[in-house]
Amino acid sequence: MEILRKLTPLEDIFNFYTQETNSLIFPTTFIIESHIDLFHHHKITSQSIEIWKDLHPLLSSSLKKISNDFFLIKNNENKKNNVHFLKPSDSNSLNWLLIHRSQFMNSFQLEADLLWRLFIVELDSNLPNGCFKYSFTINIHHSISDASNNFAIIAELLGLIEKNFTKKLHLSEDQRFAHSEFELNFPNDPRFGLIDPNTSLEQFIDYEKKPLLPEYFKHGLKFNICSNSNGKFTYLNGKDYATFLDLEQQINDSSTGYEFKKISHSALKKLYGKCKVKNLKLNSIFEVISSIAFKKISEKFSGISCSNETNKYEVTINIRPFLNISNNVMGCWVSFFEGELDLDFEETDENFWSIKFWSLCEKKCQALHDNLNKREFLSREVAEGSAILCKILKNGQRFKDYAYNYAISNMGDKSNQALGDMFKIKEYYTGLSYNVDNEFGLLATCSINFNSFWSFSYCRNLFCDEAAKLFMDSIEEYILKASQ
Questions:
Q1: What is the pLDDT of residues 263-318, one digit of tens each?
Q2: Distances from the Cα of 418 to the Cαs of 44, 152, 197, 414, in angstroms?
Q3: Taking each helix axis from N to C terminus, what angle separates 357-374 and 282-302, rounded to the nearest 10 degrees?
Q4: CA 197 to CA 385: how far, in whole Å?
Q5: What share of the chain is helix, strand, coil (3-state, %, to 5)?
Q6: What is the pLDDT of residues 116-146, one digit of tens each?
Q7: Which of 164, 269, 329, 405 is most open to solvent, judged by the fewest CB atoms within 10 Å of its CB?
Q8: CA angle, corner 226, sides to 223 and 232, nearest 5?
Q9: DSSP conformation class of 67
Q10: Rounded to an integer, what is the distance from CA 35 to the centroid of its chain?
Q11: What digits encode the pLDDT tens for the residues 226-255?
Q12: Whole-angstrom distance, CA of residue 72 vs CA of residue 7
């Protein structure tokens, strides 16, 4: 057995939730337009995937528990097929969604499993431009990847397939070495925190364990998928993978809900223009818009005004740029800071969208700049906090004051991602599974060519499907209003 490295405290937290509660399972789907028939040339595709695995030691790793800690170990014995080429029996552009949502329940077995699975689904083999349409759904253990990395390594894989197909594939040892070096051993890695022996954990433990969200969010409609379709997914050799009905039943029984949206090209283009003129980060706009949307659903389900309340949420940040490493480097390189917005406004007021809204965005943008400039997310205190949280969770306790209505993850604009000539990433959707009472939901967004892709994954035990749909509908409504 070759031990690669110990998990960082944050990676260990994600692994704890995945192993102990089937939470924070992390599927991401890319809708891809291809000039290559990947199924006809599946041997070239599979060969490229093997080369891709060689670039990243964590793609050939498993997890092993040694004493009380978890370690990444090299896995050369995996006999399972973790790359699935699937053909649906009928043509539907949303067939990818069944695979994506079913992966929220598909965890990883310690020591035996590699920490990722890839599902390549043929969505259309006869596009008007002669191209093919596929979904790539990668279910990757959150301890070895994050959203920025997911996008980078799938783009990298597509580049390898193209170069392999055109016989232009020449990998340098430097490229392989850079990935291996930083995935396994980053000098002075700020993610590894140690708990000060003089620190008392009692001050961090929540013994009351109050509900994370108000009870009224549970009391709305539950939406189940029921297509009554006899369709199924089959492998290239004709064997069945799963029927649509079986996958629908798994999804309906799941505690993880999922909503997604593609938001208007023209609206986002106008919003980009306004942000540029006002010198505002788009992330601050999304913080305010999501808060207004959360206020709306809170008032609908509670029946009372929320103008005296504060929306607290968590902002995810990719720390790789601050450490001068590329997004291709695997592992979990994210940190968080707290965001909050007082809801003492009325979004229906006459001048709200022309004056008050932009004033709120300016304040959030300044707060974002302040957080980035302080770089507290790279501090010893933050790393120690992750270690404390990890220990508390493993002791079966809850962290005090760790209560946010949702986390927001903005991937930014991915239009300029280098992909070569044969592939285009057209859409992007991610999410996390939720199965416990102290984790709630992830609001994730990414922009490609002025199209904005949003997804909201949430715990159905805390938040009803009706509220989640209204939340996403309201975000779309407010983006359109802000863009006018």
A1: 877 888 899 899 999 999 999 999 999 999 999 999 999 999 988 899 999 999 99
A2: 21, 10, 47, 9
A3: 120
A4: 13
A5: 40, 25, 35
A6: 999 999 999 988 889 999 999 999 999 999 9
A7: 269
A8: 135
A9: T
A10: 27
A11: 887 889 999 999 999 999 999 999 999 999
A12: 7
Q: CA torsion 347→263→462→141, rounded to 10°?
A: -140
Report how many helices (DSSP H) and strands (DSSP E) the chain contains, helices first: 12, 18
- Residue with token string 């599974």: 433
**Separation CA 173–CA 291 (nearest Å):** 47
| C-alpha distances in Å from residue 24, one per residue of 284, 399, 478 | 25, 17, 28
Distance CA(174)–CA(367), nearest Å, equals: 39
User: What backbone phi and psi angles, to 5 degrees, belong to 458?
Assistant: -155, 165
Q: What whole-number distance in Å separates Cα of residue 323 and Cα of residue 181? A: 14
Q: Could you tell me if 70 and 63 are in contact, meaning their C-beta atoms sit under 8 angstroms apart?
A: yes
DSSP string, 70-105: EEEEE-----S--EEEEEESS--TTHHHHHHHHGGG
Q: Is 444 exposed, middle or buried (0-12, 13-18, 19+ CB in 10 A)?
A: buried
pTM more than 0.85: yes
Structure tokens at 133: 């349409």
Strand partners, 458: 257, 441
